[in-house]
Write a structure and sequence with these properties.
alpha/beta; Beta-lactamase; D-tyrosyl-trna(Tyr) Deacylase, Chain: A; five-stranded antiparallel beta sheet
Length: 460
């Protein structure tokens, strides 16, 4: 009898909350085959403690990439919007007449955005400082991040995908390769960037008339010694195809990029690469600084960059001294949350690229509300994709009157579809919206989310 009563109470509760949902949202969920108990929604006006809509808002859900909202806002508050990561270069040897008789040491502190362009400029500066030839090795010191035994295949058994690149204190250019494939008859021309010293490309990809333009990738890449082998097919009538992937270990990638750029700049090197620790008492030869955190979080949120989010997440655990690891970062975030504890919160990497990550819709809304009242509210909101304009929501409501009236972060995994952020209504009200779906049909839930966004924009 007790079990039956509990079931009836649950059913009544769901029906009561469902009554709050706009009819358009409820119908879209039904069309997608998504039951209400697989959905968590929290909608409230900025500055109001009472939600307009609350459905399963206390329930722990997998948020996918909307977890980045917590990571980036915590970063703004804990580090400050002007925070910059440093990367240092040391000369472990004697520099005379432009020749270093010894090793060039690079020590990293977790810069999420040491891009190929920034690295080129820094190497050019090293040349201007008098370094022309290196008669020793390139020594890489990434000890600022502890080895958490990251497995790039653990998430989806696709270790070569760029989104699966693991964190590294000396991360260069996201450890990624940018591939462009241009159909030429039944063959292709492959362009790979950045240039890698000591590696060659073997392009075996063909162009086929039988492949659809928006189909699954029918090609793959693999590493065979010092050859990057491309195999498979692309559609011949769909123009240039682009892809990002990661094949080389961090150490090998760093050296291959460094050596290629160093030679282009006219520099010489006779040694190889190895991992090591920066010798004590060596003076810093040059320091590279990242863009400020206020710029970094734009790339993290607008383009849902998982690797950058992981770098920021680990950095949060280093503010009390010492090196970085996952447990320190989790402890630092919980300490920052203070009395506003999130008992259901599970963070693995700060990016939301996880099957185990959990948070409630209510607590994501709390993050958004706190961020909206923060001195850094402008920096935080500006980091979110603008509906119909840029980032991961560029194509949603494009050309519609609502375009530009919302800043929203999306999240997508198999079985997960989430969206959260701010909707600016025509009435002048600012609504906080969190909408999470955890269900095998989640990929069909976009129309229901869009229906709620549209309804909110018109709500007075």
């Amino acid at each position: 009898m007790k079990t039956v009563l509990s079931f009836l109470l649950l059913a009544f509760s769901l029906n009561a909350f469902a009554a709050q949902l706009p009819e358009s949202v409820r119908l879209e969920l039904e069309k997608a085959g998504i039951p209400l108990d697989a959905v968590a929604i929290e909608v409230l006006r900025q500055g109001s403690s009472r939600p307009l809509i609350s459905l399963n808002a206390h329930q722990a859900m997998n948020p996918a990439s909307t977890m980045k909202l917590l990571t980036t806002y915590a970063g703004l508050e804990m580090l400050g919007p002007a925070y910059r990561w440093k990367t240092e270069a040391y000369l472990d040897g004697r520099l005379e007449n432009g020749i270093l008789q010894g090793n060039l040491v690079f020590k990293g502190y977790g810069d999420p955005m040491l891009t190929i362009e920034a690295f080129w400029l820094w190497l050019r500066e090293l040349r201007q400082r008098g370094l022309m030839e290196i008669r020793g090795d390139i020594v890489l010191d990434n000890s600022f991040f502890e080895d958490d035994h990251y497995d790039p295949a653990a998430f989806d058994n696709k270790p070569d995908r760029a989104y699966n690149v693991g964190p590294d204190a000396l991360l260069l250019n996201f450890n990624a390769l940018h591939l462009r494939l241009e159909p030429v008859g039944t063959n292709t021309t492959a362009l790979l960037a950045p240039k890698l010293y000591g590696y060659r490309i073997i392009d075996r990809i063909t162009a086929s008339k039988n492949l659809p333009c928006n189909g699954e990738d029918a090609y793959h890449s693999r590493l065979d010694g010092h050859a990057i082998v491309l195999e498979g097919s692309i559609p011949s009538g769909c123009g240039e195809q682009q892809d990002y992937f990661s094949l080389l270990p961090h150490k090998d990638y760093f050296f291959a990029v460094f050596a290629a750029l160093w030679q282009e700049l006219g520099g010489k090197i006779t040694g190889t690469v190895r991992m090591g620790i920066t010798p004590q008492n060596l003076p810093v030869f040059s320091t590279h600084l990242s863009p400020p955190l206020s710029e970094i979080i734009r790339d993290i949120n607008k383009f849902s960059n998982n690797t950058m989010a992981k770098q920021l997440f680990l950095t949060l655990g280093t503010q009390n001294g010492g090196s970085a690891n996952t447990s320190r970062s989790i402890a630092a975030i919980r300490q920052w949350l203070g009395k506003t504890t999130y008992p259901e919160l599970v963070m693995e990497n700060g990016a939301g690229l996880s099957r185990n990550a959990q948070i409630s819709a209510e607590h994501i809304a709390d993050i958004l509300e706190r961020a909206g009242e923060s001195p850094y509210s402008a920096e935080f909101e500006a980091s979110l994709p603008i509906l119909g304009v840029d980032g991961t929501v560029k194509k949603r409501f494009k050309g519609d009157a609502i375009a530009g009236h919302a800043h929203l972060k999306t999240g997508t995994l198999d079985g997960v579809k989430s969206i959260a952020g701010y909707v600016h209504a025509a009435s002048g009200k600012q609504w906080i919206l969190v909408f999470i779906i955890n269900h095998p049909n989640a990929k069909y839930g976009k129309d229901a989310q869009d229906a709620l966004i549209s309804w909110l924009e018109k709500t007075r």
